[in-house]
Amino acid sequence: xxxxxxxxxxxxxxxxxxxxxxxxxxxxxxxxxxxxxxxxxxxxxxxxxxxxxxxxxxxxxxxxxxxxxxxxxxxxxxxxxxxxxxxxxxxxxxxxxxxxxxxxxxxxxxxxxxxxxxxxxxxxxxxxxxxxxxxxxxxxxxxxxxxxxxxxx
Length: 153
Known about the structure:
Blueprint: H1 2-31, H2 37-70, H3 76-103, H4 109-152
């Protein structure tokens, strides 16, 4: 258990930086100006850190178990990549929704939806890149662990 907690705290800075980058992109796309940027960004970052981060952690555990059972014959790296892609799509859609809602006064639902989609699509490549790199890194770490255990035996 203590090892798992260490792993979470080890990953936390990288996750917070990713959230900050994604929120920065979404805030900039919505505002297109520096006026009010930091206030809007900090409000969105705080919300994402307090709500999306814990939800994402719980969702990751459930998704990891589900994908592990359904796609058990797939190589681990492909399963990790699938988890990353699904997590990216869900969490970025939530962050785009909350960031867009907290920034703008909307004249219509169409205007809100357009800004939401723009925020989501601009930040999506960053999230997908992170998911891909993480899948490869996790696979590499697992392989190194297996090699280390085999050498000890």
